[in-house]
Specification:
The chain has about 55 residues and is mainly β. It has a domain of about 35 residues. About 0% of the residues lie in helices and about 35% in strands. A two-stranded antiparallel ribbon has the order 1-2.
Length: about 55
């Protein structure tokens, strides 16, 4: 995590936590990391996972 004094600085690292609700079934979850101001540019990172909830 970023030091507290650097929290508002652009480009500072950190940790994100995502929480999802679910129902029984299967799906693919894809998260992409990109710069919002860069249009028509491939994402810097992509994370894809197959999710199965019983």
């Amino acid at each position: 995590e970023a030091p507290k004094e650097d929290e508002q600085m652009v480009g500072v690292g950190g940790t994100e936590t995502f929480r999802f609700s679910s129902a029984a079934g299967e799906t693919t979850l894809t998260l992409v990391y990109h710069r919002a101001w860069e249009k028509d540019v491939e994402p810097l990172e992509t994370f894809t996972v197959e999710v199965v909830v019983r």
